[in-house]
Amino acid sequence: MKDVFFIERDPYAPVRHCYTVSKVLYESKSEYQEIMVLETPEFGKLLVLDGVVQLDEKYEFMYHEFLAQVPMHAHPNPETVLIIGGGDGGTLREVLKHDCVKRAVLVDIDKEVIEVSKRFFPTLSSSFEDPRAIVINEDGYKYVQDCESEFDVIIVDSTDPVGFAHVLTTEEFFRFVHRALKEDGIFTAQTESIHYHLDMVVKIQKSLRKVFPIVDLFTSVVPIYAGYWWTYSIASKKHPVRQPAREVKVQTKIYSEEMHRYAFLPEGFYGRLIEGEFRL
Ligand code: AG3
Fold first, then answer.
1. Structure pTM?
2. 199 three-class SS
3. pLDDT in tens, 210-221
């Protein structure tokens, strides 16, 4: 049999990943996007939305653990958590590892992504069975506008900020998030590649600084995302974020107290990057 390849349609990166595919397991067009599930010999299954690979079974933990565990551990006692996007359930799984969480609301605009994840990605979507999980199919941007002092942690696990996810990177949205958080709440969002999307990272960081007193950037390696070196923006009303506020007791593959600190860029380097004194 001949090898079959899938070439990713990354909207910004100057390189395109090409995957060897053993089987196309699912292909459809939902109300919002094209959804595909591909089987690969190297990465396990891939979830592809609008031509961009969102996750693979082999390395998804390197994204989900950092995105969720850093804000969850920076907060001393997160009880109520809001996830915007994240319809595959990976971020929800990480959040629900914490016994202190009483309620985790996941708002994803596209219910077909949740259904597809339930069918093909049980190690991520089993989190939907947890009685503390509340799933809402709505536009997260709209949902957050009606919340006030409700959440300890808010996490955005979105697709690239093109199309309907773009509004989730605006200063206006960050103001709604600020209001939706409790007085010591923490916000985190995935904010793309540190080199290919640096202008976007800087813009997001500067907008967050207009709204929150504490703003920072952490990174992790995600082997399937172009550039590999991925950023997460974090903003806090009160708690420092560069170290965990409590002991790491949850089971993880890569996240630890040490990795939490390591994920943050040295202050001088971070400052020069955001001020545009240094370009990657
Ligand atoms: N969401 C972020 C995917 C970004 C990939 N972008 C890219 N390669 N240009 C992942 C969702 C997983 N829960």
1. 0.98
2. helix
3. 999 999 999 999
